[in-house]
Amino acid sequence: MSTETTASVSTHILDTSIGRPAEGVAVQLSVRVGQAARHGQEGDWQALGGSATDADGRCKDLPALPEGTTHVRLVFDTETYFAKKQAAAQQDAPALRDSENGRPVFFPEVTIAFAVVPGEHYHVPLLLNPFGYSVYRGS
Q1: How far apart are the C-alpha atoms of 50 and 120, rounded to whole Å?
Q2: pLDDT tens profile 65-79
Q3: Rounded Cα–Cα distance for residues 60 and 96 (Å)
Q4: Is the distance from CB of 78 to CB of 106 less than 8 angstroms?
Q5: In this predicted structure, what is the pLDDT of residue 86?
Q6: In sequence order, which residues have a C-beta less than 8 Å from that of residue 138 and are 6 or more positions away?
Q7: Shortest CA distance to 70 belongs to which of 42, 41, 35?
Q8: In Å, how far are 58, 68, 74, 80, 100 from 118, measured between CA atoms?
Q9: How far is Cα 5 from Cα 62, in angstroms, rounded to an integer?
Q10: Cross-strand bridge partners of residue 59
Q11: What span, in angstroms and rounded, lies between the C-alpha atoms of 95 and 74?
Q12: Taking Cα atoms as reference points, which of 13, 122, 138 lies closest to residue 70?
């Protein structure tokens, strides 16, 4: 829930390769606050904590943003999600592998950074498949 002095963030993930929510994806939340963010300084992300998506692909317990937050970063652990999905489906379908490097997905993580203003809520959905992704500001 947002107040007049803080922003709030939520997210969910849809696995577009199966048309279903992506359950069990670890999501880490970090912020930049104050002057450092306004001046675009690198390496000043403060980790707040994380969560994992539920059966509906949603993170309902991301940490609250501190007052003064101007930039937010979400990091999604997509490699672990697709590795588990591949292991469960190995006998039923061809392996989801990139033939060049043998990894379960092309993108081992998805990192999304965005600017926020106090009093606003930011819902940032991730549309995901083994070889691509898309994000947008939802409602």
Answers
A1: 20
A2: 999 899 999 999 999
A3: 29
A4: no
A5: 74
A6: 123, 124, 125
A7: 35
A8: 23, 8, 18, 33, 45
A9: 18
A10: 11
A11: 28
A12: 122
Nearest alpha carbon to residue 72 among 114, 28, 27, 12: 114
Give the pLDDT confidence score for residue 96 in this predicted structure: 46
- 72/33 Cα distance (integer angstroms): 9
Spatial distance between the Cα atoms of 108 and 103, rounded to a whole number of angstroms: 8
Alpha carbon distance 21, 55 (integer Å): 7
CB-based contacts of 100-104 (< 8 A; 24+ apart in sequence): 103/79, 104/79, 104/130
Question: What is the pTM for the complete model shown?
Answer: 0.82
Radius of gyration of the chain, Cα coordinates, nearest whole angstrom:
16
Report the relative pairing of strands 46-52 and 110-115 from DSSP bridges. Answer: unpaired
pLDDT at res. 39: 59
**Which residues of the chain fall below pLDDT 50?**
2, 91, 93, 95-100
Name the token pair of 30.
């970090």
Asked if residues 8 and 122 have their Cβ atoms less than 8 Å apart, the reply is yes
